[in-house]
Design brief:
Elements (H helix, E strand, L loop, with lengths): L2 H4 L2 H11 L1 H10 L2 H42 L4 H17 L1 H4 L1 H20 L13 E2 L18 E2 L6 H8 L17 H5 L8 E6 L3 E6 L5 E2 L5 H11 L10 E3 L2 H6 L15 E3 H9 L4 H12 L2 H14 L18 E2 L1 H11 L15 H15 L3 E2 L8 E2 L10 E9 L3 E12 L2 E12 L5 H18 L2
Antiparallel strand pairs: 1-2, 3-4, 3-13, 5-8, 6-7, 9-10, 11-12, 12-13
Amino acid sequence: MAGKAVGGAAGKVAGKAAGGAAGKAAGKAAGGAAGKAAGKGAGKTAGRAGGKGAGKAAGEAASKVAGKVAVGAVGKGTGKAAGKAANKVAGKAAGRADRKGAGKAVDKVAGKAAAKAAAKAGGAVAEPASTVAEVNEPPKRRRRLRRFAAVSGSVLVLGSGATVAVLAVNGSGAPQKPDVSHVALEYRNFAAALPWPTDGESALWAEGIGGLGMCGKQTQVPIASVAKVMTAYVVLRDHPLVGSDEGPEITVDEQAGFEAYSKDESSAPVRAGQRISERRMLELMLVPSANNVARLLARWDAGDEQAFVGKMNAVAAGLGMKQTVYTDPAGFDAATRSTAADQLKLAEVAFGGGGSVSGGSGSVVEGEAEAEADTLLELTAQRDTQVPDDSLVLPNTNSLLGMDGIVGGKTGSSTPAGGALMWAAQRNVGGQERLVLGVVLHQNAGTTPEQGLARALTVSQRLAGALG
């Protein structure tokens, strides 16, 4: 019995590893029947190992995590044996916690319980759970105006004690099989071997090569603030910025000023009556992802938001984005939907400056596309921005800037959309430095916006890093 002996150091470490946000996430994900089946045995030992200092919540969280791994690994038929085996391993680990650190002990329980349970019950486990996992865990988006500067997609590495919790949130399945049928022959093996996401949908394109494959069903899904790339593209098409030109000044209307105080969505602290340049307005929309500015730009460009949405859909049709429907300029409406393959077509023009499309109000010519692409890349590469005459620094929601060659892009996140990211990177592919564009959508959909964005950033960084 480890209760009092381990209650100090083990309590603190186990409490930190299992009692925080990761513990709660794992508890939710693993708190079903499987968790209970294996958790009966493991729960007692894990709870004792933490002692009174770790608290009941830490014991339960560790129990549910260990139960989930053990039962999931050997199947429903061996749940009881798995629970006993997990409990036995947990007991040994708890006894060593005072000299090895409770965090590592708890993690070893979760990481090895499945394999030992399978051996005892006669089952088989393909591979034990990893003891270290890396995940992007951004701080919660600010819901109040003065906390806006806290919005970011910072990359955090969770310690070994939270490994199973991370897997519960992000999934641990095998990568989906990509479709590389349209990739140039000499690059097909390369494209097929990339670390494609395990869920959602994604697509890649490289300058001078073309498509590098796609993954997922490519069915319409909500895209959240990735929609703002189209909003910026339409505004720049109608009101081009040449070089470092700031463009015309735009007056902040009452609606945008009122929406600056929204507790339910991202916004920039603009005030009614302010006059702000077009370039700065675009920064405020793209960098901290301000919904109120997206709507303001739409009204400024087309007179009202619905007329502007009509322009967005016209450009989408002109680009051959057949599975895309825009219903608002900010992407806040879950009815704004698209596919990764469609959004990659937009990325090619918006960030790559490629292609030439004609037809009605959605017409685009190559020279204009190149100028708009340069401007959009420059805008989305900004690490932060500010409202004029306001000291508050608004950071870029894309925390991958400068990592693995990433030079721009746009994030998106909501519960229906999960996490999304359209990104641009400079990578060496096939022995040549090239602009590579990627789109990932619907990552961890149905969770929180923070969890979804964390996953989108993680899988995007893996893809970009593997390119060269």
